[in-house]
């Protein structure tokens, strides 16, 4: 595959991205080389571009993590469950766990991804739809394992286990809903009113307007009326911990409540008696993390796509311009989108 390809390169902290050429890498033993057809954008991408946070270890850097494309080449030890060369694939192509290696970022025409984060893209889905999955799925599923809920959990209605997802219309929130449903939870979620119906189609049992002054009372009343146990929650968005704890205080009973918190937890964050609040982060040990990534992609996502129980979410907002258009697309995301995922065809 020796050659060169175009990439949106971050030359130094504070951006902007600039399109240039890079040498096309050869995949390592456990890696897959992807010809990128579409990338999805996440808030972390503009945080890294504009502020160098989370830390960017090496400049020039290539950002991004969410891709769909064609498998160009596979490493010598890639297991047979990974897609073969020439086939369509969804790939988690981030440099985050690769010491910042620019061969691994998504914002380029050819990128490397570890095989645990590469699965087949079903024929029924476009590249643009396929690109929405990787980081949001990994984040949503890691929230469960970080509070001790294995991904093969299957509660039954008799177990009466509920979960509260605060921030359900976000990209992570939509997969939090889909995954919670697959684990057997009764799902309560919050979102702007215009997204309620959509979140119900994804599997939410009840959705509440987080802007309502009595939203906490509304959720507590619904849980009590449904006669269900609510002592598990995922805070997807900033500012959601206090109202989540206000709900749990009334619904958890004698149980130890468990809260996964996706935004960074400030040191002075609110607390609640008999409640564990855990920052949502994959295992630090590389072997454990690789196994977890394999379960997220080759287990939950691949199985859900095959059965049709997992769908791309939220709706895709396509921005043009290819690699050259990424700065403008990131600026659009930074201003704020609601209930949509920005995707750029490459």
UniProtKB/TrEMBL annotation:
Highest taxon, organism lineage: Eukaryota
Keyword Oxidoreductase: yes
Transmembrane helix recorded as keyword: no
Keywords: Oxidoreductase
InterPro entries (UniProt xref): ADH-like_C, ADH-like_N, ER, GroES-like_sf, NAD(P)-bd_dom_sf, Trans-enoyl_RdTase-like
GO molecular function, one term: oxidoreductase activity, acting on NAD(P)H
Region (Disordered): 1-26
UniProt xrefs under SMART domains: PKS_ER
Limits of the Enoyl reductase (ER) domain: 14-344
Protein family according to the UniProt entry: Belongs to the zinc-containing alcohol dehydrogenase family.
PANTHER family membership: HYPOTHETICAL OXIDOREDUCTASE (EUROFUNG) (PTHR45348), ZINC-TYPE ALCOHOL DEHYDROGENASE-LIKE PROTEIN C2E1P3.01 (PTHR45348:SF2)
UniProt name for this protein: Chaperonin 10-like protein
Species annotation: Diplogelasinospora grovesii
């Amino acid at each position: 595959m020796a050659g060169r390809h175009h990439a949106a390169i971050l030359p130094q902290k504070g951006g902007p991205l600039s399109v240039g050429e890079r040498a096309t890498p050869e995949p390592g033993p456990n890696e897959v080389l992807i010809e990128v057809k579409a990338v999805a954008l996440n808030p972390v991408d503009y945080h890294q571009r504009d502020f160098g946070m989370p830390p960017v270890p090496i400049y020039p850097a290539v950002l991004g993590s969410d891709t769909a494309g064609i498998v160009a080449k596979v490493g010598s030890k890639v297991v047979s469950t990974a897609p073969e060369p020439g086939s369509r694939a969804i790939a988690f192509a981030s440099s985050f766990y690769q010491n910042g290696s620019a061969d691994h970022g998504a914002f380029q025409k050819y990128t490397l991804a570890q095989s645990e984060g590469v699965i087949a893209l079903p024929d029924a889905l476009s590249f643009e739809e396929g690109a929405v999955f990787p980081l949001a799925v990994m984040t949503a599923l890691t929230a469960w394992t970080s509070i001790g809920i294995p991904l093969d959990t299957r509660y039954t209605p008799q177990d009466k286990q509920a979960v509260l997802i605060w921030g359900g219309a976000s990209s992570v929130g939509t997969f939090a809903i889909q995954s919670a449903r697959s684990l057997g939870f009764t799902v309560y979620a919050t979102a702007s009113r215009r997204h309620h119906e959509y979140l119900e189609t994804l599997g939410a049992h009840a959705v509440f307007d987080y802007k309502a002054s009595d939203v906490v009372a509304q959720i507590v009343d619904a849980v009590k009326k449904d006669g269900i146990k609510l002592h598990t929650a995922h805070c997807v968005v900033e500012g959601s911990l206090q109202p989540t704890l206000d709900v749990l205080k009334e619904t958890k009973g004698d149980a130890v409540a468990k809260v996964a918190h996706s935004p960074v937890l400030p040191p002075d964050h609110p607390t609640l008696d008999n409640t564990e609040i855990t920052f949502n982060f994959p295992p630090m040990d590389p072997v454990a993390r690789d196994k977890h990534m394999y379960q997220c992609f080759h287990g939950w996502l691949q199985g859900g796509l095959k059965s049709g129980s997992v769908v791309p979410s939220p709706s895709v907002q396509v921005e043009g311009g290819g690699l050259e258009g990424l700065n403008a697309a990131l600026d659009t995301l930074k201003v704020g989108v609601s209930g949509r995922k920005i995707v750029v065809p490459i």
